[in-house]
Write a structure and sequence with these properties.
Rossmann fold, 7 strands
């Protein structure tokens, strides 16, 4: 089944812009900028939206503005209105279970401790594609997980994400044009060209 909805997870507002939990927003913002598009608020769906049409394809890009933990609520309203199945949805989000900067695309799996993904599973169903962007394990180990994901990237960490942006966008392009399976086969084998396990950043 082809993809028609691409959702990024994050928290609205400037305060959260450079936090780990907003990397889904960050990647999608840069992608829409590349398309020379702009977001529009749509109160019906508690989201910012952008629609792109290329040939026979129509893709709906969406950023829920409900805060991360309620992302599924906004997303479910949108796909119910347009009668879009979960299998046609891709969700971009931060993942502490992947090395910082690493990308992995999956068609199934649990929430991995991510409350926003858990809410999407609860409201949308488990059939969506996961576009997981690694932010690395929390450090120091004693830090609360919420404090870690709501913390801002260090300069070195932010630079890694910026350097990987083309990598993420190439994967998203391939996923939209050729399908999830082909994107998985190509991009799940590739690792970032940096030491992703630095804990002293």
């Amino acid at each position: 089944m082809s993809v028609s909805v691409i959702a990024g997870l994050g928290n609205p507002g400037k305060f959260y812009q450079e936090t780990r939990h907003n990397v889904g927003f960050q990647v999608l913002d840069a992608y829409i900028e590349k398309l020379k598009g702009s977001w529009k608020e749509d109160p019906r769906f508690l989201s910012q939206l952008y629609t792109s049409k290329r040939g026979p394809h129509t893709w709906h890009f969406i950023k829920p503005q409900t805060y991360v933990n309620l992302s599924g609520d906004a997303l479910s309203k949108f796909i119910a209105y347009y009668k879009i199945p979960a299998e046609s949805v891709v969700v971009l989000y931060d993942d502490i279970n992947l090395d910082h900067g690493r990308l992995k695309i999956n068609q199934e799996g649990g929430a991995g401790g991510h409350n926003g993904v858990e809410d999407v599973i609860r409201n949308v169903g488990p059939g969506f594609t996961r576009f997981r962007i690694g932010v690395g394990a929390k450090y120091p180990p004693e830090i609360d997980l919420a404090d870690f994901v709501l913390g801002k990237f260090s300069k070195l960490e932010a630079d890694v994400i910026k350097k990987q942006m083309d990598h993420y966008h190439q994967a998203l392009d391939l996923l939209l044009k050729r399908g999830v399976a082909i994107a998985m086969n190509k991009f799940n084998q590739r690792k970032p060209k940096h030491d992703a396990n630095k804990t002293n950043l």
